[in-house]
Amino acid sequence: MSSQKQLYAIVDIETTGSGGGDDKITEIAIVLHDGSKIIDKYETLLNPGKYIPAFITNLTGITNNMVADAPPFEEVSDIIWEMTENAIFIAHNVGFDYGFLQKEFAAIGRRFIRKKLCTVRLCRKVFPGFHSYGLGKLITRFGISVNDRHRAMADTLATVIVFEKILQNDTTNQVQLQLNNGLLVSDLPPNISMDSLHELPERIGVFYFHDADGRVLYVGKGRNIQRKVMSQLARSSKRMIQLKKEMTDITFELSGNDLIMLIQEGLEIDKHRPKYNIAKRKSNFAFCIHEYQNEGGFQCLAVGQYSKYLNVIAGFELQIEADEVLKKFAKEHGLCNQYLHMNTKELFARVCQHPSCNNTSCSTLDSEEYNKKVSLAIETIRVPFEEEFALIGKGRTKEEKSVLLVQEGEFKGFGFFDYQNISHFEEILLAVKNQPHLSIFEYYIKKTIRKGNAEKIIPLAASNF
Question: What whole-number distance in Å separates Cα of residue 194 and Cα of residue 250?
């Protein structure tokens, strides 16, 4: 007896906006496809419970009067659930449609998880070289007839034709590769199913590979946990093959933002010392700012590759970061370009205050006088943190924020709090769990601040939230 055909639920939605804030669905269409033909269809207008802006009506043709008597999402949620339940969810720019449906189901207490494919991404692989992969452009290129563009069923039927063309021309198995983020069934660990991997969240955090006794074999991190786990398991190195033989379970912790993710990963590796995490180098950095004395007795500062043989002042993951920091401190302390060595070769405005300095030569400058300025700059770079502060960032949910505490010049811990129910700063500090300081954390925190990625920095002396 032949195996059951794979079903595809091809979906399009229309909404009150682009997805920010409280935007809602105004129309949905679902076409069920078995890879050869359409086997079912469903479409309905939905009452979003809010006003449809005029520019959305101009785009879709859906008016407030049209949805006034339409059912709310909850009323038709069972139909949507059942039609998509045993199918692969497909949409053109799938993150938009899938994300809206996840949000709508979450609002009624249901977790909507489906395997999914994006016809935009698939077209880029199967039909490379197109100037644009927008649905309108593909409709024109493929000669697809559409009567009500930007209405849900019309766009869904157009996407069906696009998907059929993908299936007909998919000579490199892109449908399967993209469905599982490059992971083939043959690459799966013996004790891990593909369905269990699709249950993993597509959110930022850390993940753990465990053995049969629950021991942590490997700790990893990713902005999309599901995608990162699948891409890791798709690897075929000897180390990964052996790891896959030993692992029996995967767990995860959500982080909310990049900084907390990096901190969590560092803490967990330090705590568990996992067998399959590659041993950390003595330095976590590839580049550094280092100092040396030239033949004239002047202290020079340079950016270079990290080495234990250099007199290192500070380490960095990226060369450009080291360049930026050196430029900043050179300007602040009036250092001369002739005693600075960076990858960018870019000279900045004259900052040395000595009368003989022309920005490339400082002929009468006294080395002892100059070296005092360099020493002050070095001390400034080396100071861990001049103030004690709490760093506020995104949390794991919309209602939550993260807090990271720096005291006595080092990381003290982090936690999460419900910012809607906070009245005093001390309540935020109570959310912080004390954790060990690792030297790499100073770099992570400084980088976050330098890049402006913290939502708020609160000096403990001020403690105003």
Answer: 12
Assess whether 131 carries a catalytic annotation: no
Superfamily of domain 7-177: Ribonuclease H-like superfamily/Ribonuclease H (3.30.420.10)
Contacts 24+ apart (CB under 8 A), 328-333: 329/377, 329/380, 329/381, 330/301, 330/377, 332/377, 332/380, 333/373, 333/374, 333/376, 333/377, 333/380
User: Residue 116 is encoded by which pair of tokens?
Assistant: 């999914």
What CATH number belongs to 185-272?
A: 3.40.1440.10
How much is the pLDDT for 389? 94
* pLDDT of 350 higher than 90: no
Cα separations (Å) of 84 from 122, 200, 239?
20, 18, 38
- Taking the C-alpha atoms of residue 52 and residue 101, their distance in angstroms, rounded to an integer, is 18
Question: How far apart, in whole angstroms, are the C-alpha atoms of residue 59 and residue 29?
Answer: 17
pLDDT single digits (tens) 196-248: 999 999 999 999 999 999 999 999 999 999 999 999 999 989 999 999 999 99
Instruction: Dihedral sign for Cα 437, 439, 441, 447, please.
Output: positive
Query: Worst-scoring range by mean pLDDT, 18-32, 71-85, 281-295, 310-324?
Result: 281-295
Pick the catalytic residue from 92, 150, 290, 333.
Answer: 150
The larger pLDDT score, comparing residue 343 to residue 114, is at 114
Please, which residues have CB within 8 angstroms of residue 39's CB and are 6 or more apart in sequence?
A: 7, 32, 33
* 256, pLDDT greater than 50: yes
The pTM of the full predicted model, rounded to 2 decimals, is 0.74
CB 293 within 8 A of CB 300: yes
